[in-house]
Write a structure and sequence with these properties.
The structure holds two protein chains of two kinds. By secondary structure, chain A is mainly α. Chain A is 83% helix and 0% strand. Chain B has eight helices and ten strands. Classes of the chains: A mainly alpha, B alpha/beta.
C-alpha cells in the first residue's frame, strides 16, 4: 500500500467511522428521530424527494458560487489596494475589520428590505461573508514579499509594475489560494443563512420548511447535502492549489 | 578615467537618520572594490545609492559620466540571501535578468537558445552542472548562493553589486565561493563593488578596500591590494596577507575605541 492510498483510507475511514458511531449511538440509546435521526434515516428521507432536493441543492450551489465569485473579485482588488498602498491600508483596514465584525445574519433583513426575498440576498450574503479572508490574505501576501526579491528586478531596470507582476503576484499566490479554501466554505454558510431567513428556494429554505413540518430527518438530510457540496468544492480548490502553487508546499518539506 | 564617481554623497532617511555622509569615491572600470565596516555603517545603503535604487539627499553619483537618477539597469546584484524565486527552476532563475533587462529582452525572446547555452555553461563553471531543472529548495545554501551569482552575471552586466553574498555560509563553502567568484571575475572583468564585514574576504578578492565608520557612514580609510591574480587560497595564510588584514582591523578597531571613549566622556 503506497502513501497515497493510505492517506485516502485514513480520510475516508474517519468520515465513515463518524457515521457508524452516530448510527450506533442513535440505535443503542433509542434516540427518537425527531430529536436526532440516524444518518441512515437522514439519507432515506432524501430519496423519495430526490429531484426536489437536487433542485434546491443546485440553487444553493449557484448562489454560493456567484457570491464567491464576486468575493474573489472584490477581495483581490481590495487586498491589492490594502497590501500595496500604505495610505489605503490605514484608511481601509479599520472599516474592513469593523464590517467583518458585524454578524452577516443580521444583514439579511436589510438585504431583503432592499432586494426582496430570494436569490439576490443569498448571493450578497455569500459574498459579504467570504470576501474578508481573501482581502486579508492577498494583502498579507503582497506585504510579505521580501524587498530584496523586488530589488533583484529593479536593479535590472524593470518598472515597479513589472516587479509587481513578476515577483509580488507569484509570491502572494499561495496566500490567495489558502484564502479561497476558507472563503468557499464561508460562502456556503452565507447562502444558507440567507435562504433560511428569506427565500423560497435552496437547501436552507428546504430545511426550514422541513423543520416546520417536524420532518427532522429531512433537516439533517439537508445538512448532509450542504456538507457534501462544501467538501467537494473545498477539494476542487485544494487540487487547484496543489497544481498551481505546489512549489510553496514542497519547498516547506525540506 | 573613473567609471563610477561619487562626489560628496549623503543620504538622509525620511525619519531624519543620516545613513551616509560626504562620501567621495572613484572606481575604475574593471576594478574590484570592497566596502568594509561595522554593521549599520551604511555600506549597503551606499550600494543602493550607486545602483540608483535610492537617490542621494546631497551630492552626485555618476556612472559612465552620466548622473544616476534612478535604477540604471545593466547591474547584477547578489544579496546575503540567495533571493531565488521558488516558483522557478534553478535555470529559470538564472535566466531571469534576460527576460527583464531592456538590453537583452528582445533578443532573448526571439532566440533564447544561445542564452540558455550560456546559462548552462555559467552554471557548470561554478559547479551547478546537472542542477538546471532542480527546484530551488532542492539546493543547499551554498548552491543557492552560486545560482544567485550566476543570475547576477548572466546578462554580462558592467557592474556587479555584492551585498554580503557569502556571509550566511559556513567557512568552507565561503572559501570555495571566493574562488568561484575570482574565476567569474577574471573571465568577465566587470566592475565589482563588494560589501562585507569579512576582512579576509575583502583582501582576497579586491583591488581596493575602503573601510567605513558608522553613524553617519563615512569613508575612513582606503587600502590598495596588489597581489597578482589568480590568487591561490593559500595566499590567505601568508604574512603579507595577514599584515593587510591586521592593518584594516586596526583601522576599524581604532574607530570603535574612539566611539567608546567618547561615550565614556559624555
Amino acid at each position: 500500500m503506497n502513501a497515497r492510498t493510505r492517506d485516502t483510507l485514513i480520510a475516508v475511514g474517519a468520515t465513515v467511522g463518524l457515521f457508524v458511531l452516530w448510527e450506533l449511538a442513535v440505535r443503542l440509546f433509542k434516540i427518537p428521530p425527531f430529536v436526532l435521526p440516524a444518518p441512515s434515516q437522514a439519507i432515506q428521507s432524501l430519496l423519495p424527494v430526490w429531484g426536489v432536493v437536487m433542485g434546491h441543492a443546485w440553487q444553493t450551489l449557484w448562489t454560493t458560487l456567484a457570491g464567491f465569485g464576486i468575493a474573489v473579485l472584490a477581495g483581490v482588488l481590495l487586498g491589492a489596494a490594502v497590501g500595496t498602498s500604505k495610505p489605503l491600508n490605514l484608511a481601509l483596514y479599520p472599516i474592513l475589520v469593523g464590517f467583518n465584525s458585524v454578524p452577516k445574519a443580521a444583514l439579511v433583513p436589510v438585504l431583503v428590505l432592499w432586494f426582496g426575498i430570494g436569490t439576490v440576498p443569498a448571493i450578497l450574503t455569500a459574498f459579504l461573508i467570504s470576501f474578508f479572508p481573501i482581502v486579508v490574505n492577498v494583502a498579507t501576501g503582497l506585504a510579505a514579499v521580501p524587498p530584496e526579491l523586488r530589488e533583484v528586478l529593479r536593479v535590472l531596470g524593470s518598472s515597479r509594475f513589472e516587479a509587481f507582476t513578476r515577483v509580488s503576484i507569484p509570491f502572494s499566490m499561495p496566500y490567495f489560494f489558502a484564502s479561497l479554501k476558507v472563503a468557499i466554505t464561508l460562502a456556503f454558510v452565507g447562502a444558507v443563512i440567507s435562504e433560511i431567513a428569506a427565500s423560497q428556494k435552496g437547501i436552507g429554505y428546504m430545511m426550514t420548511s422541513a423543520s416546520s413540518q417536524f420532518n427532522v430527518p429531512l433537516v439533517f438530510g439537508g445538512l448532509l447535502v450542504i456538507a457534501v457540496m462544501g467538501i467537494v468544492l473545498y477539494a476542487v480548490f485544494a487540487i487547484l492549489e496543489r497544481r498551481l502553487v505546489g512549489w510553496a508546499y514542497r519547498s516547506q518539506q525540506t | 578615467m573613473s567609471f563610477i564617481e561619487l562626489k560628496n554623497v549623503s543620504l538622509r532617511y525620511d525619519n531624519g537618520y543620516l545613513a551616509v555622509e560626504g562620501v567621495s569615491l572613484s572606481i575604475a572600470q574593471g576594478e574590484f572594490v570592497a566596502l568594509v565596516g561595522p554593521s549599520g555603517c551604511g555600506k549597503s545603503t551606499l550600494l543602493r545609492v550607486i545602483s540608483g535604487l535610492r537617490l542621494p539627499s546631497a551630492g552626485t553619483v555618476t556612472v559612465h559620466e552620466k548622473t544616476v537618477r534612478g535604477p540604471i539597469g545593466s547591474i547584477g546584484m547578489a544579496f546575503q540571501n540567495p533571493t531565488l524565486m521558488p516558483w522557478r527552476t534553478v535555470l529559470q532563475n538564472v535566466l531571469l535578468p534576460l527576460e527583464v533587462s531592456a538590453v537583452h529582452k528582445q533578443q532573448y525572446r526571439q532566440n533564447p537558445k544561445p542564452f540558455v547555452e550560456a546559462a548552462r555553461e555559467l552554471m557548470a563553471s561554478v559547479g551547478l552542472g546537472g542542477f538546471e531543472n532542480a527546484h530551488v529548495w532542492e539546493l543547499s545554501g551554498g548552491m543557492q548562493q552560486r545560482a544567485s551569482l550566476c543570475r547576477a552575471l548572466i546578462h554580462q552586466p558592467e557592474i556587479l553589486m555584492l551585498d554580503e553574498p557569502f556571509s550566511a555560509l559556513d567557512a568552507f563553502t565561503r572559501e570555495e565561493l571566493w574562488q568561484a567568484m575570482q574565476v567569474l571575475y577574471l573571465s568577465r572583468k566587470p566592475t565589482v563593488i563588494l560589501v562585507t564585514h569579512d576582512l579576509r574576504e575583502a583582501v582576497y578578492l579586491s583591488d581596493t578596500i575602503y573601510t567605513m565608520s558608522s553613524r553617519p557612514g563615512q569613508i575612513a580609510y582606503s587600502r590598495k591590494v596588489e597581489f597578482p591574480r589568480p590568487r591561490p587560497l593559500e595566499l590567505t595564510y601568508e604574512d603579507d596577507f595577514a599584515h593587510i588584514v591586521r592593518e584594516l582591523r586596526e583601522q576599524i578597531g581604532g574607530m570603535r575605541t574612539q566611539i567608546s571613549s567618547l561615550k565614556g566622556v559624555g
